[in-house]
Inverse folding.
């Protein structure tokens, strides 16, 4: 199976950039990464269809392997529609997140943070002396004990 | 009779359209949605009986024969999953209807909950009946998009935060699945499951393993298998209680279902079985340890959900018909019991105003019915005899012992330990939330709640809405009873799981179903 090298390189670049952006905390970049990845996968399917050929409408005197494989294009079309709908939803979600929390990033789960810091078992007192302006939080803990 | 197969998908889809149109009449909408799922339940039961007595149903969509058209295949496994899903979806819908009536959301202009819920049903059914990889992908997307809407329902800050994690992780798994489909098409020139199964043996082993791993990773994210399970306890607990119940019961099991299909139909060869067993072990242990560390009922249940996925993967990873049969029985048991537990925790949230076990107490005295409805499925999940959890685990351990290599024996030990840890986590919930007298709770929220209700300025409607609606209790009780029925009728049901696993023993039977005249090369 011969494939276009340009397409393969483009696909690889899209995958790399998409994965890189998906790993960011900023939600806008995550959406962009998702769009790039979606296009990379579509390109992958297109490459898997093999080399381009004539339009797949049966005409007399054309060899069977001269036609383009139409199935991957149908798959890509479906995938594009799905990606489109989902990215619209994601944008709405991000807008809502920005309106509510005024933040454009994936935030940590409050329960996870609480558990990690042991706050569930023993809640820290808010009235600890000089809790805001001491430079040595570890020492402060020692003193309290 | 084959008309049943498309009907299972079309009925909820039309139901979704109708409920969307009549969105301004919530009572009618609720009635239509419940009717649709009752019909779905009937269809599922009829299909299971037909498939079990007459034989599997195969439909070529649009009349195009198999390699060209999309084929829908319903064998015993699919039919059983359709029926169990219909039961769970109906119970959860009744629960949420009860909650909706009590919360008085009749005033909201367009209620999107019911249409979205029916779309979710459609997606679940498409995934179960599809005999085509790309169609399976479409089914996954239908149910995932519906689940994105449901998990962010209402758009509060915590739900948006949890929803973002869920959506991004699901999207990644979908893209991986799509890429795997593209590669399978490139390697084999088909996406029809039976034809893929027939052709895949001719591929070089390394290509086979690559495709196998890609599919397993994509489905592993959906099924919340250990290294890919981090998103689940993070995102499920913040959704509304009925939504969490439906998701926890069903959505992960669809991933497990897909893994069973991959392991039995496409790649029955045992190369990756040891790796899967290690993954199953880690899923069980890490999930159970997570459950022990948590302090919120919903989060504890989410972690036990992850750990019990490990049992199912164990059954599949054994690579024997006995293992698959045990996994199928365990899936049916776990869908029902996990949903019942989440519904019960929804009742707890309603009674006590919180699901944090450090802050609630005395529920045994104040809500004895809820306590019973929590206690029975909790014992069931922990695997106490004679409940179905015990039967399922026993069957898994027997299958593992018959398979007999060292890893399988380690997994038996780990499985027994994890069931004890599950029991420990659930007993902790029982001791703190139910058994502990409410006066021992620091900063007792339940008492606070009652004083608000009894305050002189509270209107009568407020206290009326706080009472737990009968529909909610009724549907939870129905789920608990279904869990008990799985115990009482364990014999016939296990026989069914056995026959389903027989059908999945090697890809030949599946190929024979779709191509009765033999596969075109």
């Amino acid at each position: 199976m011969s494939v276009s090298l340009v397409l393969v390189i483009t696909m690889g670049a899209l995958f790399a950039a998409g994965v890189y952006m998906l790993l960011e905390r900023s939600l806008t970049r995550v959406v962009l990464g998702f769009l790039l990845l979606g296009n990379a996968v579509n390109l992958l399917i297109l490459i898997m269809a093999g080399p381009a050929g004539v339009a797949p409408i049966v005409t007399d005197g054309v060899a069977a392997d001269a036609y383009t494989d139409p199935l991957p294009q149908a798959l890509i079309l479906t995938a594009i529609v799905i990606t489109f709908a989902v990215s619209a939803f994601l944008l709405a979600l991000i807008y809502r997140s920005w309106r509510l929390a005024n933040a454009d990033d994936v935030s940590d789960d409050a329960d996870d943070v609480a558990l990690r810091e042991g706050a569930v078992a023993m809640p820290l007192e808010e009235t600890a002396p000089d809790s805001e302006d001491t430079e040595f939080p570890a020492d402060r803990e020692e003193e309290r004990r | 009779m084959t008309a049943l197969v498309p009907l299972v998908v079309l009925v909820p889809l039309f139901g979704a359209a109708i409920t969307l149109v009549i969105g301004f009449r919530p009572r009618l909408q609720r009635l239509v949605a419940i009717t649709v799922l009752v019909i779905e339940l009937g269809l599922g039961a009829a299909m299971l009986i037909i498939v079990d007595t007459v034989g599997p149903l195969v439909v070529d969509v649009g009349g195009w024969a198999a390699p060209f058209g999309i084929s829908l295949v319903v064998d015993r496994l699919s039919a059983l999953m359709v029926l169990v899903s219909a039961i769970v979806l109906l119970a959860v819908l009744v629960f949420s209807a009860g909650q909706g009536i009590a919360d008085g959301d009749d005033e909201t202009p367009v209620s999107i909950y019911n249409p979205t819920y029916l779309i979710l049903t459609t997606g679940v059914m498409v995934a179960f009946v599809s005999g085509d990889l790309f169609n399976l992908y479409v089914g996954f997307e239908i149910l995932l998009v519906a689940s994105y809407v449901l998990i962010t329902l209402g758009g509060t800050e915590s739900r948006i935060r949890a929803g973002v994690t869920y959506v991004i992780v699901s999207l990644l798994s979908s893209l991986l699945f799509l890429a795997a489909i593209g590669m399978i098409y490139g390697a084999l020139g088909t996406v029809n499951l039976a034809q893929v199964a027939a052709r895949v043996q001719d591929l070089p082993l390394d290509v086979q393993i690559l495709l196998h791993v890609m599919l397993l990773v994509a489905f592993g994210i959906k099924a919340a298998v250990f290294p890919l399970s981090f998103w689940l306890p993070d995102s499920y607990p913040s959704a509304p209680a009925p939504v969490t119940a439906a998701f926890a019961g069903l959505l992960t099991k669809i991933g497990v279902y897909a893994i069973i299909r991959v392991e039995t139909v496409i790649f029955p060869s045992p190369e990756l079985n040891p790796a899967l067993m290690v993954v199953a072990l880690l899923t069980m242990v890490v999930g159970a340890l997570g459950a022990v560390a948590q302090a919120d009922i919903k989060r504890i249940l989410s972690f036990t959900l992850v750990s019990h996925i490990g049992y199912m993967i164990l059954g599949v990873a054994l690579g024997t018909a006995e293992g698959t049969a045990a996994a199928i029985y365990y899936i049916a048991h776990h869908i029902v019991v996990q949903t019942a537990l989440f519904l019960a925790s929804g009742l707890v949230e309603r009674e006590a105003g919180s699901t944090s076990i450090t802050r609630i107490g005395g529920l045994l005295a104040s809500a004895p019915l809820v306590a019973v409805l929590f206690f029975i499925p909790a014992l069931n999940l922990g695997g106490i005899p004679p409940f179905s959890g015990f039967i399922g685990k026993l069957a898994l351990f027997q299958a593992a012992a018959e398979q007999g290599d060292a890893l399988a024996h380690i997994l038996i030990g780990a499985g027994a330990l994890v069931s004890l840890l599950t029991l420990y986590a659930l007993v902790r919930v029982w001791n703190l939330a139910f058994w502990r007298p409410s006066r021992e709770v620091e900063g007792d929220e339940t008492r606070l709640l009652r004083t608000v209700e009894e305050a002189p300025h509270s209107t009568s409607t407020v206290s009326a809405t706080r009472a737990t609606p009968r529909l909610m209790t009724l549907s939870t009780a129905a789920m608990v009873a279904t869990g008990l029925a799985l115990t009482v009728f364990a014999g016939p049901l296990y026989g069914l799981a056995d026959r389903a696993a027989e059908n999945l023993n090697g890809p030949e039977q599946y190929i024979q179903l779709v191509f009765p005249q033999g596969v075109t090369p």
Remarks:
- Chain B touches chain A through 39 residues (CB under 8 Å).
- Residues 341 and 377 of chain B are 6 Å apart (CA to CA).
- Residues 157-188 of chain B form the longest helix (32 residues).
